[in-house]
Amino acid sequence: MTRASALEHAVVDPSLAETESPDAPPETADPGRQIDRRLSDSNQTWLGKVVDGRYRVLDVIGRGGMGVVYRVEHLRMGKMAAMKVLHRDLAQDPEIIARFEREAAAVSRLNHPHTVQVFDFGAAQGALYLIMELIRGQDLARVIERDGPMPWSRAAPLCVQICGALHEAHELGIVHRDLKPENVLITRTTGGRDYAKVLDFGLAKLDQRGAPKRETERQAIVGTPYFMAPEQIRGDDVDARTDIYSLGALMFELMTGEHLYSGSTAVGVLTKHLTADPAAPSMRAPKLGIPPAVDHLVRKALARDPAKRWQTAAQFAEAIEEVYGETVADTTGTRTSVARALRGRQHAEEVATESDLRLRRSDIDSYEASIKRRRWSMFAVMFLLFGGGVAGAAYLLTRPPVTLGAEREANDDPEVANRIAAGSPVTGHLGKRRSATEGDRDLFRVEFPSGERRVVSVTVSGLPNLDVTLAVGDRLGTRAQTADEGRIGEGEALHRRSIDGPLTITIGQNVVRGALPVENVSDTYTLLVIEEAAKGGEIEPNGIEADANAIAPGETLRGYLDHTTDLDLLRFNGNDGTYTVTLTTNNPATIWQTGDGMLRTPGVASIALKRGEILKIQRTPKGTPKRDTTWAFDIKR
């Protein structure tokens, strides 16, 4: 038997073979906490609703500390997904909303097979939501509760899988912050093998209601006490090594069945993370046969000093693989890594278990392509039927696409978005409302070719009797950035956004709770999409360190703070030294800071900078709203 075969047999869950069949109804774990199927009145109000014109809410499948999870159906594709609706009070704070948009946009880039995919996000009915893949399985906490401590031979592959998900996120600058058994779903391959899916990346960062507002204090106590790293408890900066500590605590519980530290209060547990030395798993549970070599793996992950831990999730995974190879024997003596087994047959089997009724990222890609094909086919057939002939068909297929200079209804859905051209103004009305609670919305598309990244700015003028909103997203209108900075009568703008492929723009109105949507069939707004030069200006999104724009000595970089909570990050690309830094802006209520944490106002400053240091630009929390706040950063010796 090869090592790969030994691993595959080792990770089979025997209890599953006795209790489940392929025809059993799916059991979907709550992404975040243990399932609580009781419905409150507020939860029931979502049932039957259509969210953002695409997702019909079918039923509640779980509840947790961050919100409620629903099963939803994508109306155009008929595919099932999970929708996590965060608690409404999170949507009352503009700062949290902006943070949600930044975190969700970052997390939606994750595509690792051991990460629960996030397809879409937005706001509806006064709450924030995420659309995620629907997973059949249980969270790891319930698996431990059901099965008890896992043998090392079963725990090792799961930990390697979790490391894979973490490593991709860390490479993109995303730290989970709340890794725990409840945030790891365990599903099964067709052979009954464990398959881990990590979820809720970055969500813990949102749940800071009532937390201090200053940037230097925002990170205080974000996470779960049993799995929280010392630097989190102290409110220090967190990075990939913070998640590695949490994974070490998770591994300890996975193999011993006990928390790393226990106490009668949360404060008592947190204190032990700061002061106590972690016990060796083999000593805590001496009768479970945990190899002594595993003790070193776990205790190094649990070092109080981040510099003494495994420095990356990939390094941690390699160490787990090595110990697995030394401690788990097979009949032939052939050695192969845990990673080889996970990346081969096991992954292929997992894909095979996915129901055709569940929404996947490939479904969205195929759907976008099919819309384009159907449009062209319909036009071609109609033209040929009316005598255009071969020459007419050739002309149809080669001529530039027709674009509009004025809105043409109906255009309130991505499938019927009006096609417009960059650089040409387009006029439109926000007229007849769609329902008693939903105002008119207009969708437009610029058919930029895929594979050619470009920078665009989008502006829309205001209307005298309503509050216009602007959203810019991909072909389906998903992964959108929204602007609602202006008041009634004022326009909106989103500047210098990096895109690759078709751009969909949504014009709508902000309706105050309890009020009726406004219909305005008299006044027109003007929409303008402009393609801009990439050099010399910021490129959005740049609100997380992974997306920070580079700036070198001698350069002047210009940008915009499009909304009150917009955060622009720059990465210094010069040599270490002291520099003269100048920030000019049209809004005095602008502040900036470097790695020293000192808040500075616009003007000139002499500052010591290190290569790779992050510079942050934002508005003051109490500043007067000012749409189109501009800034220019200049760094000189």
Question: How would you sum up this structure, described in words?
Answer:
This protein has 15 helices and 26 strands. By secondary structure, it is α+β, with helices and mostly antiparallel strands. The protein has four domains: 3-353, Transferase(Phosphotransferase) domain 1 (Transferase(Phosphotransferase), domain 1), CATH 1.10.510.10; 370-398; 414-532, Sandwich (Jelly Rolls), CATH 2.60.120; 545-636, Jelly Rolls (Sandwich). Helix 6 packs antiparallel against helix 8, helix 8 (240-256) runs antiparallel to helix 11 and helix 11 runs antiparallel to helix 12. It is globular and about 80 Å long. The chain starts with a helix and ends with a strand. Residues 1-39, 208-222, 331-339, 342-356 and 389-399 have low confidence and may be disordered.
Layout of helices and strands:
Blueprint (H helix, E strand, L loop, with lengths): L2 H8 L3 H6 L21 H4 L5 E2 L3 E9 L3 E8 L5 E7 L7 H14 L10 E7 L2 E6 L5 E2 H8 L4 H20 L12 E5 L5 E5 L31 H5 L5 H17 L9 H10 L5 H4 L7 H10 L11 H15 L10 H16 L7 H25 L3 H10 L19 E2 L6 E5 L11 E5 L7 E7 L7 E6 L7 E3 L8 E8 L3 E7 L10 E13 L16 E3 L4 E6 L5 E6 L4 E9 L4 E4 L9 E7 L4 E6 L9 E8 L1
Parallel strand pairs: 10-12, 19-21
Antiparallel strand pairs: 1-2, 2-3, 3-4, 4-6, 5-6, 7-8, 8-9, 11-18, 12-17, 13-16, 13-18, 14-15, 14-17, 20-26, 21-25, 22-24, 22-26, 23-25
